[in-house]
Specification:
By secondary structure, the protein is α/β, with parallel strands linked by helices. It has helices spanning 16-25, 48-57, 77-83, 98-107, 153-167, 184-190, 199-202, 207-230, and strands spanning 3-6, 31-36, 64-69, 87-91, 111-116, 134-138, 172-176, 194-197. Bound molecules: D-xylitol-5-phosphate (DX5) and zinc ion.
Length: 231
């Protein structure tokens, strides 16, 4: 069953926990936390103290999915683990020693994910697919919420699903950027299993209603995805 990961980037930070609870009440099952350093991406967001505060306020049954868009990730991964992160993903493009960074996350007992930017081919991941718990396909250039979905991400999702079958692996496929009521069906049909959505959940109106609507559309598209997989 496809999962929704509301991205707190678009939430109201003055009432962060309450806003997150609304999105969870609408069916979100993990919270996506975007960490930006102003170097790897042209924006700055938050660090371990915010993760620690969220971890205190949100049920432990809800994993905190920390997407690190930072350089020198290894220096910061232990602090995010201490703060209560459950899943940590690092960018292929930002990690000189990608295997080491992923192993560090796993050594700390967390789920490890690898992320690729829109211009990075799926083929660059071949040597790490066997050790990751999830692959995050960026469908916008990272740095900001509310951008338009880049359609070439759909082919990358399909390729990853095919490689997973061919290699007999179990990683999950997550997609991040421009997931909206308009794009969600094709994203799920392509094979995405975890949907990150920021603006579509927290942008306007009720986060609960927005989450319910988006998940409903995603679930409707799921049988098509299963049929594709069987074809
Ligand atoms: C972008 C972030 C995303 C962002 C997605 O760099 O990684 O998680 O919050 O926002 P939307 O869903 O608005 O495209
Ligand atoms: Zn993200």
């Amino acid at each position: 069953m496809v999962k929704l990961a509301p991205s707190i980037l678009s939430a109201d930070f003055s009432r962060l926990a309450a806003h997150c609870q609304e999105a969870l009440a609408g069916g979100g099952t993990l919270l996506h936390v975007d960490v930006m350093d102003g170097h790897f991406v042209p924006n700055i967001t938050l660090g371990p103290p915010i993760v620690a505060s969220l971890r205190k306020a949100i049920s432990n049954e809800v994993p905190l999915d920390c997407h690190l868009m930072i350089e020198h990730a290894d220096q910061f991964i232990p602090a995010f683990a201490d703060a209560g992160a459950n899943w940590i993903s690092v960018h292929q493009e930002a990690c000189v020693h990608l295997n080491r960074s992923l192993e560090l996350i796993k050594t700390l007992g967390l789920r490890a994910g690898v992320v690729i930017n829109p211009a990075t081919p799926v083929g660059t991941l071949t040597e790490v697919l066997g050790i990751v718990d999830y692959v995050l396909v960026m469908s916008v250039n990272p740095g900001f919420g509310g951008q338009s979905f880049i359609p070439s991400a759909l082919e990358k999702i399909k390729k990853l699903a095919a490689i997973r079958t061919a290699m007999n692996l179990r990683f999950a496929i997550e997609v991040d950027g421009g997931v909206t009521q308009e794009t969600v069906r094709s994203i799920v049909a392509a094979g995405a299993e975890i949907l990150v959505a920021g603006n579509a959940i927290f942008g306007k109106g009720s986060a609960k209603a927005n989450a319910e609507k988006l998940l409903g559309l995603a679930h409707d598209a799921e049988p098509a995805a299963s049929n594709l997989a069987r074809a």
